[in-house]
């Protein structure tokens, strides 16, 4: 058997070649066109995922698979050559779940690296690398975590995902806009669209399945999924632009049915557990707890018709981003936390941000600025944890901000730190900064950093410090860009706020 380096296995997609019994029903086409993934690690397990599709862009959304269950065999090993297999078995990929496979494994060792693969129809999948979380009491085991958001297929190539995989993180968080719902040519980047999306605007289960399949067919995205376990959360574009609860951005018939179809396709295509809700916690020993929030499904509809404007209604105390149940769940988690770092994995800009320099204040009402009372309650809740960190996507640029006790008083106490990742592609190539950035930062002194390149954010958690590297690409309108660290910051234990390195 030939020997492959980890990078060859994980980034080039070479499948293992040891004996692995196939099913009797062989087909000539590869059903593993959408890759493999893992997610939501625990100390004794992880979710393993794949979805069978011999024709990923089939118009009926079924990937060219027959309307019957297909047996899929799987293996987990603690070496990449699969000479030490620790678990194996078989399961069924069912048509009612889009022929997806979700294995919720248990019985693994904590804090361990594992390798996994699938086989069916005489084909073997690529090999994936995953990792279990450390034991609950573990504090001294550092964590390298990358987070990303906003991958618009038409706006650019997914090189940032491949660069993320090459950084070999232990965990990846995706904070939303994993896919975009638009038909071709509707959502155009400033630098123009460089790739073509198939199908109409997604409104049906078949459409959402097909859109997910086109994204999952991208080799750079597959490389990132195969490199580490992911924890994912949706934002708006996995369903429809700026949706809120059962309210779409623009009036449309039977939005509830459309949303249910999008939810089903999201589950089928993500390495998540079967659960009645998406908000959940990922614990990394006693070092970090990730509170993954759903800021779409339970929110009040946006105030004043959404958009960027002056809007007194945004201050109404009854307005909620999280909903009563999720808010209680979050505050219970704060009170019970023994983690060194408590981290919110969420979607939209958390810190106050006035977009108009001068005496007139204008705020983005789809973000937390449209839900001021709920944000104030969350900020008050930060007092119950040792170190509070907010991770954010959505806004297509990298930002660093300090969460203030009183937003309009720069000298007020800093209670938390917000790190905002740029987009994978949304917005096209971008630039180093906007021309009037100094004016924006003067209007918002708690914002300490801005960069408008595409990329992702790499973090390293230790008991004493959180280090952040904002990673940016030169371009996404053509493939193969190198990645550079645009800026690095540290947050010290018990000292909220950003210190530039």
From TrEMBL:
Keyword Nucleotidyltransferase on entry: no
Boundaries of every PhoD-like phosphatase metallophosphatase domain copy: 145-470
Gene3D superfamilies for this protein: PhoD-like phosphatase (3.60.21.70), Purple acid phosphatase-like, N-terminal (2.60.40.380)
Name of the protein: Alkaline phosphatase PhoD
Segment forming the signal sequence: 1-26
Keywords, in A-Z order: Signal
InterPro entries named among the record's database cross-references: Metallo-depent_PP-like (IPR029052), PhoD-like_MPP (IPR018946), PhoD-like_sf (IPR038607), PhoD_N (IPR032093), Phospholipid_Metab_Enz (IPR052900)
Pfam families xrefs: PhoD, PhoD_N
Residue span, Phospholipase D N-terminal domain: 34-132
Top-level division of the source organism's lineage: Bacteria
Keyword Signal: yes
Gene assigned in the entry: phoD_2
Organism: Lentzea roselyniae
């Amino acid at each position: 058997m030939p020997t492959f380096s980890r990078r060859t296995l994980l980034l080039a997609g070479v499948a293992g070649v040891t004996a692995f019994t196939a099913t009797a029903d062989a087909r000539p086409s590869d059903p593993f066109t959408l890759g493999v993934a893992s997610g939501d690690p625990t100390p004794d397990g992880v979710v393993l995922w794949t979805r069978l599709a011999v024709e990923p862009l089939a118009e009926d959304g079924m990937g060219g698979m027959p309307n019957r269950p297909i047996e899929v065999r799987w293996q987990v090993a603690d070496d990449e050559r699969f000479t030490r297999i620790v678990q194996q078995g078989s399961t069924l990929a069912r048509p009612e779940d889009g022929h997806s496979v979700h294995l919720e494994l248990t019985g693994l060792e904590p804090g361990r690296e594992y390798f996994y693969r699938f086989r069916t129809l005489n084909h073997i999948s690529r090999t994936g690398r995953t990792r279990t979380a450390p034991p609950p009491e573990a504090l001294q085991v550092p964590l390298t975590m990358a987070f990303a958001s906003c991958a618009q297929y038409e706006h650019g190539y997914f090189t940032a995902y491949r660069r993320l995989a090459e950084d070999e993180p232990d965990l990846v968080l995706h904070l939303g806009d994993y896919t975009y719902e638009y038909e071709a040519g509707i959502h155009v980047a400033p630098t123009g669209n460089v790739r073509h999306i198939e199908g109409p605007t997604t409104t049906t289960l078949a459409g959402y399945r097909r859109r997910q399949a086109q994204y999952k067919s991208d080799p750079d995205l597959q490389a990132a999924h195969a490199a580490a376990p992911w924890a994912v959360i949706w934002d708006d574009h996995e369903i429809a632009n700026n949706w809120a609860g059962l309210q779409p951005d623009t009036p449309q018939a039977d939005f509830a049915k459309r949303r249910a179809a999008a939810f089903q396709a999201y589950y089928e295509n993500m390495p998540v557990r079967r659960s009645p809700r998406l908000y959940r916690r990922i614990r990394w020993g006693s070092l970090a707890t990730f509170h993954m929030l759903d800021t779409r499904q339970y929110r009040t509809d946006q105030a004043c018709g959404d958009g960027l404007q002056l809007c007194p209604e945004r201050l109404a105390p009854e307005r909620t981003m999280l909903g009563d149940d999720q808010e209680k769940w979050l505050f219970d988690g704060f009170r019970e936390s023994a983690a060194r770092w408590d981290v919110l994995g969420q979607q939209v800009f958390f810190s106050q941000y006035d977009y108009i320099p001068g005496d007139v204040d204008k705020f983005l009402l789809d973000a937390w600025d449209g839900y001021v009372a709920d944000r104030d309650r969350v900020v008050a809740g930060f007092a119950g944890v040792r170190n509070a960190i907010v991770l954010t996507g959505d806004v297509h640029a990298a930002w660093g901000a300090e969460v203030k006790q009183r937003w309009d008083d720069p000298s007020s106490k800093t209670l938390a730190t917000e790190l905002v990742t740029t987009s994978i592609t949304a917005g096209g190539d971008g630039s180093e900064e906007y021309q009037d950035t100094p004016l924006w930062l003067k209007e918002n002194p708690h914002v300490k950093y801005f960069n408008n390149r595409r990329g992702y954010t790499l973090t390293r958690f230790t008991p004493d410090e959180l280090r952040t590297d904002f990673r940016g690409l030169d371009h996404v309108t053509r493939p193969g860009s190198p990645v550079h660290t645009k800026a690095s910051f540290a947050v010290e234990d018990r000292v909220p706020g950003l210190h530039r390195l």
